Amino acid sequence: MAEFNDGTIIDDTIDTPNDAGDQGAGDQNANDQGNQGAADDGNGNQGAADDQQQQQDDWRARMAGEDKKLLGFLGRYPSEKAFVEAAKKDRDTLFANKTVKLPDNPTDEEVAAYRKANGIPDEATGYFDALDGITVGDDDKPIVEQFLSAMHETNAPPALVKAAVSTYYQIVEEQQAAEADADRVMQSESIEALREEWGPDYKRNLNAMHNYLETLPETVRSAFTHGRGADGRPLGFNADVVKWLAGKALEENPLATVVPGAGQTSVQAVDARIAEIEGKMGNRNSEYWRGPQSAKMQAEYRDLITMRDKAKAKLDA
User: What does the DSSP assignment read for 92-105?
Assistant: First the structure.
């Protein structure tokens, strides 16, 4: 028997001469089929190719069913194998990026494995390695260490910890910049108020105040020079505080605003100036009585007498 590509089987029984005509027809038919099979083989097995194409078309229809949108989606893939490979690749990517959660009440081993898998350090101090580019000062280190410890308890990833610390410092810098701007405004306002009230005695009163501050204990002096009031204003930029300190300075040393000459004490300088002004008082045409400086000199004389009397009383006490 002979087997052809189409799967049919032809009986090769020899016919009798009486069947010669039929045999000829049969031979012709066999020749035609043989030639057709040969032609198919010569065209790359056209029958098998048609079957394969039909199977490729059928897998999309089989999967999609009546869903035309799904059928169109499957049409993007050249073969069923290509579709399966793409699906596997997507699945592998999904699982590779999937965050694995710790179970409730995890064991130490489970926590250690989770941290290792997610790049979390074994100790909280290990987060410092992730803070590259961020300078943590000695004053800030205890606070940052406490923060890192809290983050480590939650198994926070290093990238998140770095972002949080960076944001903290950014907020602090912005607050400091805003505070410095406000301080400059308050300083300017204080100076303006004191100059308006003290006039020409502005510098002398400030010097008296600063000299007085130097006599105070370090902790008290620091409170005035670095402290802030309830409103956030630096005490040194508060005109009322500065005036109070200047008043205390003059109270303690009435001659504090007097600048003595070479080889003089403050008392001698006051006495000398009083004598100079009193010398002018005897002449009714002097600048003490006449001219643009008369009122100022008369006020100065009164202040000098007050300072001299206060200084004397303090010495006699």
Answer: HHHHHHPPPPPPSS
* Tokens 């308890």 belong to residue: 153
What ranges do the domains of the chain cover? 1-32, 157-252, 264-317
Residues of the chain with pLDDT under 50: 1-39, 41-42, 44
| CA atoms of 165 and 168, how far apart (whole Å) | 5
φ, ψ dihedrals at 234, nearest 5°: -60, 135
Question: Cβ distance 194 to 202 under 8 Å?
Answer: yes
- According to DSSP, residue 16 is labeled P
Joined tokens for residue 150? 């809290």
Is residue 257 packed enough to be buried (19+ CB in 10 Å), middle (13-18) or exposed (0-12)? Answer: buried
C-alpha of 230 from chain center: 29
Residue 78 in tokens: 């050249």
For the stretch 212-223, pLDDT in tens is 898 899 999 999
Let me know: does 258 contact 305? Beta carbons within 8 Å: no
**Cβ atoms within 10 A of the Cβ of 239, count?**
17
Nearest alpha carbon to residue 73 among 56, 88, 61, 55: 61
Cβ contact 79:100 at 8 Å: no
- pTM (predicted TM-score): 0.50
Instruction: Retrieve residue 10's tokens.
Output: 């032809």
Q: Would you state the pLDDT for residue 221? A: 93
The answer to whether 124 and 156 are in contact (CB under 8 A) is: no
Q: Taking the CB of residue 277, how many other CB atoms lie within 10 A of it?
A: 18
20 three-class SS? helix
CA angle 89, 81, 48 (to 5 degrees): 170
Q: Write the DSSP string, 81-130.
A: HHHHHHHHHHHHHHHHHPPPPPPSS--HHHHHHHHHHTT--SSGGGGGGG
If one counts every other C-beta atom within 10 angstroms of the C-beta of residue 268, the result is 14
